[in-house]
Amino acid sequence: MELRQLRTFEAVVAHRTVTDAAVALDLAPSSVSEQIRTLERDLGVALFERGPRGMRLTAAGERLRGWARRLLDQADQARRDVAEARPVLRLGALETIAAVHVPAVLARLAERRPDLVVEVRSDGARDRLLDAVAAADLDAALLLDTGNDLGGLGFGAPAAPLAFLDLDPVPLALVAAPDHPLAAASRLRKEDLYGQRLLVNVPACSFWLAGERLLGDRVERVRAGGVPVMRAWAERGLGITLLPWFAVADQVAAGALARLAFDIPGLSLRLVWRADREALPGMREILYASAASDAVGLPSPADHGAARR
């Protein structure tokens, strides 16, 4: 059993087909297939069920998944220790929050772990970030979520042992043009919003999901685009939109937008990682160093049951 075979095994698990795994690894599909067959032959068990919809792990494959990640992590740690390399945190982040919230996290890490090298990868797709964490291509990822479970906002999570910690609150605001009929109301009820045009991005967008939880299907959704487009359309009176407060605060202060008087539960800046990677030397302390020191209910890094799974 070789490390390269375990990396190939993880790639097939993450991408579900030999072809996609080969693309990710920059290998020929025949090479990926041969490595998997060799690994299965060496172990004496079938690791995958082959089907028209891709590769699914067998019970033996599920057992190997945890071992593969631990062995690869230990090999990486040994390589860094021998080379006396600085520890590296590969951190993913949603593009929506990369400009505003990620710098504060990086500043905390720089203050508390000056020895740490942080490599940031921003992405507009939450699913890609979560898949990268599950496949250990990223050590952790920052995204928006709510509730006591991962995916409480309404998105699915990969079948991997993921843990998370909420770092900072992310307030939301429902905004409209200053001359919008709802802008003058001193207080709005949910029923007042029914039938309104809600400017949205795509169904996977965090703010679409937040609006879905808040208003269901009682509003008319108008697809506009990303945050700048939704904000600009709202300024021009084309509808109302639900956005993070940091994205509209300047426009509200300047009078270009009005914040509607409607109570909206905020979201959380959530750090997600593989729970089984906490066993790596220093990894748990690195992850918790990213949290604000005054975070409510922040568990101690020594409390191994604190992070939610």
From TrEMBL:
Family designation: Belongs to the LysR transcriptional regulatory family.
CDD domains reported in the protein's UniProt record: PBP2_LTTR_substrate (cd05466)
Listed Pfam families: HTH_1, LysR_substrate
Protein name in UniProt: LysR family transcriptional regulator
Domain of life: Bacteria
Lineage: Bacteria, Bacillati, Actinomycetota, Actinomycetes, Streptosporangiales
Sequence ranges assigned to domain HTH lysR-type in this UniProt record: 1-58
Keywords annotated in UniProt: DNA-binding, Transcription, Transcription regulation
UniProt key word Transcription regulation: yes
Signal peptide positions (record): none
GO molecular function: DNA-binding transcription factor activity; transcription cis-regulatory region binding
Cross-referenced InterPro entries: LysR_HTH_N, LysR_subst-bd, WH-like_DNA-bd_sf, WH_DNA-bd_sf
